[in-house]
Amino acid sequence: MRSTLLAFCALIGATFAPAAVQAQATPDAFAGSWIFDGAPSYPGVTMMQVSDDGGHLAGTVTTAWYGAMPMADVHRQGDTLSFTMRNINDAKAPTQVWTARLAGGGVHLKGKIWSTEHEEDGRRGTAEEAAARTFHATELPQAHVLAPNGLAKTPPMGWSSWNAFADHIDDATVRAMADYLVSSGLRDAGYRYVNIDDGWQGERDASGVLQPNSRFPDMKALADYVHARGLKLGIYSSQGPKTCAGYPGSYGHVEQDARTFAGWGVDYLKYDLCSGEWFYADRDTVLRSYYEMGAALRATRRDILYSLCEYGRFDVGEWGVSVGGNLWRTTGDITDTWGDMARIGFDHNGKPEWAGPGHWNDPDMLEIGNGGMKATEYRTHMTLWAMSAAPLLMGQDLRKTTPEALAILSNRAVIAVDQDRLGIQGHAVRKDGTSEVWSKPLADGSVAVALFNRGDAPTRITLAATDAGRPRLTSIRDLWTGKSASSSATGFMVPAHGSVLLKVR
Ligand code: GLA
């Protein structure tokens, strides 16, 4: 019986190799490099690589945004390979299932990352094609504490291109903004930085030096133009391979880019986590990635104000100073709506203890004058940012500034509250339903007190001496009207979504 079974097995073995032996002899059909030509730019899949280690399949999907993303839980069933990928920015779906299906000699890849689902067809690639698409990961340095750079003793003021222009920005427009800052008197009111946000980048040259795109023919000449008008130039990059708008980021070129910016005469860098959030997804790596650029800026020996844009993650205010930061965003992006502006300005503007001369919470750029809010709401926007010692970075097309918006933005008494040299971030001392009373001590011994009405109907808000931390008030001045006000107990009528800003003694 036993010999019959052995003979039977020998016969089978001669015709059909056992599965394990077969896998060793012929690698899995998925093994190798698959090339994706012309995949959509986000996340820009360029290659899938699968290895077969004695039947154990592993692999990566390489993308322009996130480099070589490792596959997990890889399973093969019939002609389909399924695996999971770490997802970003979606705590509810920390992983996503992807599939690759063999079809007509090629592969059909399907998966979702963050909010975008993609599907693309790949073909088998050669070793040379694979080498050309290989992503070269870089190591982050260990972080040390950088001494303060001495900049931004008061919150930075200026203009930034993003809110009005997104990435449709060019040299001529930036020059026009610089001209307007001078002719309108806004420069002399304190608005000094002219910041080019995302959208200026071209490609890297053969030595890896990042070039501006054709809309910015000569960055150095642009910096000279801005400087000649008593202004300073800001620029933008990301620690990932791509910026938020899909332009080249500084990944793998951090020191080189810092040198390029310094060489052009740049005075301000906004460094935006964006595609870097795939690589740097915890406090330690995010901190070190900001340190990497902070140290690189320092090494240029040029005074470059450093703005951290990581949307307030990982308590950035606790460590932003140590990596050389002068300001750090406290939230995601503002929009030109009362709801968003109020949500950020009242409730997500960073802890007051994080702010002070040289280092500020940044609730994002101003929307004043962009048209989405009423004048009363824009005045509240300005009052909130001034009370918060927030950076005042205008975000409208300056050439279209209405007299009303100009009056809001250039009110010197309100700006003085923001720019007060004590650098104390004000906060709510009293809340009652939709009314809030905020206080901010000033260097001259007076106190700025703001009465806010977040509600949809006018309301009366009383002022108490204790709001200013004083036993009694001897003088009250309304900074929007410029008039003295009485301290009568009847309080102030505050319109819906409105504010009253007082300087009291
Ligand atoms: C992010 C930032 C914005 C802006 C854009 C540019 O969304 O938070 O402020 O810089 O990127 O792409």
Task: Write up this protein.
With 505 residues, the protein is α/β, with parallel strands linked by helices. The protein has 3 domains: 20-133, Beta Barrel (Lipocalin); 157-425, Aldolase class I (TIM Barrel, Alpha-Beta Barrel), CATH 3.20.20; 428-504, Immunoglobulin-like. 25% of the residues lie in helices and 28% in strands. It has 14 helices and 26 strands. The chain has helices spanning 2-15, 19-25, 127-133, 162-165, 171-183, 219-228, 254-264, 276-279, 283-299, 316-319, 338-347, 375-387, 403-409, 412-418, and strands at residues 32-35, 45-53, 56-63, 67-70, 72-77, 80-86, 95-103, 106-113, 116-124, 157-160, 193-195, 201-204, 210-212, 232-238, 268-272, 305-309, 327-329, 360-362, 392-394, 427-432, 435-441, 447-453, 459-461, 476-478, 492-494, 499-504. The protein has a 9-stranded antiparallel sheet. An 8-stranded parallel sheet has the order 18-17-16-15-14-11-10-19. Helix 11 (338-347) links the parallel strand 17 (327-329) and strand 18 (360-362). Helix 7 packs across helix 9 (283-299) and helix 12 (375-387) packs parallel to helix 14 (412-418). 44% of the residues are buried. Residues 1-23 have low confidence and may be disordered. The structure holds alpha-D-galactopyranose.
